[in-house]
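Input (structure):
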């Protein structure tokens, strides 16, 4: 199978996946010749499918891509439960699973938020 044919088939496949929800197993069995030509096994097809941005947007609600307010709400609740102040290093350890934030990002977030501020090594809830 030539590279132009492979590219064409992959593009057609991506267009089809924008409107349908096929599993990686189905995709692998339906397009075995293409995957064999690309040297992909079933696990690699699953990874390729999971990496498609259009596919991820179908499966994830919009709120999953808008995490700033969720982090802010989480931090506010965390500070309330800890008496209004907490060391930044401890706050970073209590960020929800699946969320990555650096100390610099946390400082900037606190700067932009009216409910909290940074005082020395502490994140403080302003009341």
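Output (sequence):
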């Amino acid at each position: 199978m030539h590279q132009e044919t492979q590219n064409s088939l992959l593009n057609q496949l991506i267009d089809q996946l924008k409107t349908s929800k096929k599993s990686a197993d189905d995709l692998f069995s339906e397009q075995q010749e293409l995957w064999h030509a690309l040297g992909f096994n079933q696990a690699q097809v699953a990874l390729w499918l999971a990496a498609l941005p259009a596919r991820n947007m179908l499966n994830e609600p919009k709120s999953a891509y808008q995490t700033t307010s969720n982090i802010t709400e989480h931090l506010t609740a965390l500070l309330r439960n800890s008496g209004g102040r907490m060391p930044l290093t401890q706050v970073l350890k209590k960020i929800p699973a699946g969320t990555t934030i650096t100390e610099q990002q946390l400082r900037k977030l606190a700067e932009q938020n009216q409910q909290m501020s940074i005082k020395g090594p502490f994140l403080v809830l302003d009341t």
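Notes: The first helix runs from residue 3 to 17. Residues 60-67 have pLDDT under 50 and may be disordered.
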